[in-house]
Give the backbone structure.
Amino acid sequence: MGSTTVSANTLLAAEHDAVLADMWNHPVNDRPDLLSADRVHFATAGQAVMAAEMVKALHGRVA
């Protein structure tokens, strides 16, 4: 499922000219404080990493 999902997300984003910050295989995924107690949503630390990745992705679009 992993690589298929990533490929589908990448293709869908390209089709709609969307900015994609792919976190699926990000090295920070090993951090124990990444997710909230429900283990589904990002905790504050995860949100900070996601925000940084989104800034990088947006910078790549406008640079």
Q: What stands out?
A: The first helix runs from residue 2 to 15. The chain is about 50% helix and 0% strand. Residues 28 and 34 are 8 Å apart (CA to CA).
